[in-house]
Design a protein that fits this description.
Layout lengths: L1 E4 L4 E4 L2 H7 L1 H6 L10 E4 L4 H13 L10 H21 L2 H18 L5 H10 L5 H15 L11 H6 L1 H14 L29
Parallel strand pairs: 1-3
Antiparallel strand pairs: 1-2
Helix pairs in contact: 3-4, 4-5, 6-7, 7-9
Length: 207
């Protein structure tokens, strides 16, 4: 069967029975009677790099381990595994989905890099609520915001907050879970100077 993936229509010629064995998604695509079976499938909204990894797993039963890759290749491979997770989520391949997110986490750790808002927004655009990948990236964002040594703050993720209420809720919940069990002072008590509109350091004459 011919499979075309992505806007560039990257082409693979694959065994129909192998595809149908691993996922009901392809069973549905090829469930017509023998004479009416389609000779091709088009997945033009999917990522070719992710599909290439899927094909490798179908025929070899494994993915490459990011730990075996040189440092300058780790992030690109991790990013491809993140996209593979999204693909597997769509076509119902939970085993490979779990392998993909493990490789993504490991690749981020070993590369010393994490996804930014440009990568997080598409994740929230294409995954369902309660997705493990959403949980992972929202915790990454929360940790970046909370880290006193990080130059990133909440404004870094403005595009994600604006486009997804789910992202905002997940990040706030992650910050709450990760913060020390100590409340800041009651904002309705004490000196209110910090809520006044005047220059920093200016003597407050209100009250």
């Amino acid at each position: 069967m011919d499979v075309y993936v992505g806007k560039g229509r990257h082409h693979w010629s694959l065994h129909r029975d192998l595809l149908c064995y691993h996922t009901p998604f392809f069973q549905g695509k090829t469930s017509n009677c023998e004479k009416q079976r389609p000779s091709k499938i088009e997945l033009l909204d999917e990522d070719p790099q992710a599909f290439e990894l899927l094909v490798k797993w179908l025929y070899q039963g494994k993915l490459d381990d990011v730990s075996d890759m040189p440092l300058d290749k780790k992030w690109d491979y991790a990013d491809a595994c993140q996209k593979l997770f999204i693909l597997c989520d769509k076509i119902n391949m939970p085993q490979l989905k779990n392998i993909a997110i493990d490789q993504f986490r490991k690749g981020c750790n070993e590369a010393g890099l994490v996804p930014g808002p440009e990568e997080m927004k598409p994740i929230y655009d294409t995954t369902p609520p309660r997705s493990p990948l959403r949980k992972l990236v929202s915790q990454i964002a929360a940790r970046q915001i909370m880290d006193p040594q990080s130059e990133l703050d909440a404004a870094t993720y403005r595009m994600c907050f604006e486009s997804s209420a789910d992202f905002a809720v997940d990040v706030v919940n992650a910050i709450r879970q990760g913060a020390e069990p100590k409340l800041f002072d009651d904002p309705t008590e004490g000196n209110g100077c910090c809520y006044h509109d005047h220059a920093t350091g200016q003597l407050c004459k209100v009250g």
